[in-house]
Amino acid sequence: MNSTFLNQDEFAKQWTSIIDQISEKILQLFFYTKFFPIFSLLFGLGISMQAIKMLDKNMLSFSFFRRRMLFLLIIGVLHIILLWSGDVLNLYAILGLFITLLIKKSNKLVLTLSTIFLLFPFYDLLLGFLFDLINFRPETYLIEYTGTTVNQIIKNGTYFEGMKLRLLEYLSNIPMLFGFLAPVAISMFLLGLYIGKNKIHENLDVFIIKIKTPMLLITIISNIYRLVFLFILPEYEVYNNEYFRPIFIKLMVLSDVCMGLFYLWGIGWLWYYSKLKKILSPLKYAGRMALTNYIIQSLVGLILFSSVGFKLYETLSPSAALGTAFIVFIFQLILSKVWLSYFSFGPLEWIWRCVTYKKVFPIRKAS
After folding, report:
1. CA gap 226, 224 in Å, rounded
2. Nearest to 50 by CA among 37, 61, 39, 41
3. Does 57 score more than 80 pLDDT?
4. Which of 39, 49, 94, 44 is nearest to 72 (CA)?
5. Which of 33, 56, 228, 248 has its CA 20 to 30 A from that of 152?
6. How far apart are CA 196 and CA 99, in angstroms?
7. pLDDT in tens, 244-283
8. Contact between 322 and 103 (Cβ < 8 Å)
9. Average pLDDT of the chain, as a whole number
10. Between 214 and 100, where is the model more confident?
11. Global pTM?
């Protein structure tokens, strides 16, 4: 939110100090696109856990998940219009409905589809063909906007001008959303579905040890490639070759997915097999309010960067942005802990639950 996709490359060039260069490398190596696979896998796992629980009671209902995903879609659309164009909830809602159709399918089919969606290399060509077919031109939505005009609208424009810009940004980013993020999301949904169907999460400590060697080996190999991609390949002409570059980028996507899965494995290993359980345990409060915290982050970003707040758009250096992110997340950990001391659910989680079950649940904890 500190700089839109339209202007990120130009904005990044101005930060040349050592601390900002280090911060940018930290963001590239450890943060960018690493957490999307985690959220997606956990989302798929959550769907499967709910579905299996209902299946055991012979109460599995597509309408249940339809209501659940419809509400998520509404939240996603409002998120785009009111707060931030980079929403993924709308994508999760659309793909989540598809996943519910595969709950009763075989493990082999689920894993095969997960692998195919992740490895398929021609999404750009496929989307290009579909866009030509329906005469959709996403590149035209921001054709009249420059980095300067976007900067002025976000920092000095009205809230309604910001809403219009967010909608146009979303439409222009549809190729990235459905050509880059959607394949990763649906692949991880299916992997989460597989974990839930086989109740692996019920014996996670055993599973973590079982996959230790392949997980570490894959992580080492993928990280070697990530380092080559970020710091060595750009120096060579082949990096910009129209035939090889898509392959390099696809391998980078796979490396980021591997890193995200390693984070999940690593947190699990630390939880079960180290003395850091007490240090990690506060994360559960933010996790129980994941949807609320996701929206709160965008609200904080809107206040920090736009004309409705402090107008800091494109003023934070990489090091300042990194520090701000940590401060905001620590604030959310504290807020989540305090909220859950008095309430059983986060506010959005409570509404989502009530809509899904068509029943008003008590939100306050008993005294």
Report:
1. 5
2. 61
3. yes
4. 94
5. 33
6. 12
7. 888 898 899 999 999 999 999 999 999 999 999 989 999 9
8. no
9. 93
10. 214
11. 0.91
Using the CB atoms, write b or e for 168-184: b if 16+ within 10 Å: bbbbbbebebbbbbbbb
| Per-residue pLDDT tens digits for 7-20 | 787 888 889 899 99
Write the CB contacts of 208 (distance below 8 Å, at least 6 apart in sequence): 265, 268, 269, 272, 273
Instruction: Locate 86 and state its tokens.
Output: 């980079």
CA 79/CA 166 separation, integer angstroms? 10
CA–CA gap between residue 202 and residue 200 (Å, rounded): 5
